[in-house]
Amino acid sequence: MAAPSETSYIESFSRLRSILEEPPSPSPDRGTLDPSDWPGFRAQAHRMLDDILDYTQHIRERPVWQPIPPAVRDSFRQPLPPKPSPLASVHDTFIRRILPYAVGNVHPGFMGWVHGGGTPVGMLAEMLAAGLNANLGGRDQIPVEVERQVVRWVRELFGFPDTASGLFVTGTSMANLIAVLVARAAAIGVGVRRLGVAASSKRLIAYTSAAAHGCIAQAMDLAGLGTDALRIVPTNGQHQIDTQALQESIATDKRDGLAPFFIAATAGTVDVGAIDDLRAVADVARREELWFHVDGACGALAMLAPDIAPRLAGIERADSIAFDFHKWGQVPYDAGFVLVRDGELHRRTFASPVAYLSRETRGMAAGSPWPCDFGPDLSRGFRALKTWFTIKIYGAEKLGAAISKTCALAQYLKQCIEREPVLELLAPVALNIVCFRYRSEHPDEVNQDIVADLQESGIAAPSLTSVNGCLAIRAAIVNHRTGKSDIDALVRAVIASGSARVHRCPKACR
Known about the structure:
The chain has helices spanning 8-20, 38-57, 70-74, 87-98, 120-132, 142-158, 172-188, 192-195, 215-222, 243-255, 278-288, 343-350, 383-419, 443-457, 484-504; strands at residues 165-169, 204-209, 230-233, 259-266, 291-295, 320-324, 336-340, 423-425, 433-438, 463-467, 470-476. With 510 residues, the protein is α/β, with parallel strands linked by helices. It has two domains: 135-381, Aspartate Aminotransferase, domain 2 (3-Layer(aba) Sandwich); 392-509, Aspartate Aminotransferase, domain 1. Helix 2 packs parallel to helix 4 (87-98) and helix 7 (172-188) crosses helix 9. The longest helix has 37 residues, at 383-419. It is globular. It starts with 7 loop residues before the first helix and ends in a 6-residue tail after the last helix.
């Protein structure tokens, strides 16, 4: 039977409805949560949209961040409201007490953590997704096809086969957990879902670098393997995993009768933005027959930037990749993603054949497999829509150019630091993260105060980290709005704060 056209199905539905039921009542049901005054609601909705667009358009006129006054904080400690409140009143509370006190990653001066800046396009797509209110756990619906479209684009970007699977998740922490669970199934069989890891005679061991994100250890914990089963491999002078030490650790574990199964390399370490030698790690994984995973939360989307992508050589050989569209992809939070080379193994690791999820060949229960077959969530938001909109509206080339720009700005900041005698670079600048400090006899205390000074000033918002035992000012340049003037403002503010701190401090503290 031929598929119905876009109009013929609606016409058939209307005819059937006229036969089976009375015309819909023109008076609304008073029990609904829809507005009783749609024109008034629409007018208020337009005001709310204008306000948030104004916020984004004029973001430079605001501080990056500001401390929360006690009275504002206390206003969110009130009991459950029993009665309704007008939409305009609640929106006014948002404007006065929520909007000014966000962390500030929309602002071009935000460089504290690896947060994307979002876009007005993504914001509008999020609004549309909320209106549609689709649950992307499954069912035969176009929103699922939108997610599958993004999966195809991701396969293409990373050079994965058509049989690879992909899934939107909250973020890379969840994506890394999914990768560990699929690798666990590859190592000891999908029967682990029923029998548990204790039933296996193998003691599974995983490997990652000392610079890896803490969520790798958390994934081992949540997978029931234990953090003691994660070997922390030292890094080299470029903050990359030491592949010789990795090889030696694997050999030691094998001699001890353990079962190495998983290596997590990093594309863009959280502290300094280093990229592991992915080709070398892939070689080790292939030689030792281990699962090769790449945590690309910070850096994997550099594949969109032709000048940066060569640094990720070897990522196409991964068994799985985790990354976030809400970082360099500039998609609004949250939009994490996991890509798995063996799509069938991925499905078998999570699919649950229960009666209420039975699949059919027609009707709403068609269209299998569903996204819920590839992860732990049955209830899933339409994250794919804001990602799809972002990619469609801007295109891969423009998104890649924004990534290249942030890396160029990091190099510019490096040059500024090297020109200033009072500043000291603390790590190589591999991507878009710069770690440095203000020179002083007691640099940890001074630089800790500098970062707090800058954040509270609202001019710029770097963060702190530790590099080779030294407290460092960390500038993560991710926001597409950030420009050279913002870098200049950061440098000036660091020098001014540092100078004031040193000169105010008693001689014994210098």
